[in-house]
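Box 3.1 A note on notation
Throughout this textbook, protein chains are presented in two layers. The first layer is the amino acid sequence; the second is a token string describing backbone geometry. Keep the layers aligned when reading.
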Amino acid sequence: MDFITSLDGYGSAEGWPGWWGLEGPEYLGWLESGGTDFTVLMGAKTYELMAGMAQGAAAGEDFSDDESETMSGLAAMDKVVISSTLEPPYAWPNTTVLSGDLVELVTELKRDATKPIHTLGSVSLCRSLMEAGLVDRFRVVIFPVITGRTGADRIYDGYEDFALEFVESRTFDDRSQLLEYVPRLLDGPLKR
């Protein structure tokens, strides 16, 4: 599971550009370095949003060269969308749409996968995956901005309690921080 957030846990903010305008070449290079070596899992809303951004980037809309390259890379990846509403033709190539019980679909997808699966956005889908115990790694890139007044899409609202076992960290462009954990669902607060 992969998220990008502001320091105060928002996934986006009104009036701010993508990545809060702080993406930087190191971070974008890291995104691209994964190439097509994994499958992207997302919900319909995220799929439609990201496909629209990719089409805008391809049409030369207000995107930097680095952002356009990142969007082109996403188009090349295998994408699995969990949705009961998306209908062909799909906006992006390499798209498979699955509908049905999320836990059953993702359990089967993980069992049959020939490469790693990463989520993209899809807050409610990710919340359900965490609660079902289907997330092996929880990764978040925290951008150094607090968007308390303009923040939208609070990432962790509605989640159960989880303990996170630290695995790895990395800093991008001397400002954004990647934190990677193994999650474990808790029955209640941790005891000392």
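The radius of gyration is 17 Å. The beta strands are 2-6, 10-13, 39-43, 78-82, 95-98, 117-119, 138-143, 151-154, 162-172, 176-185.
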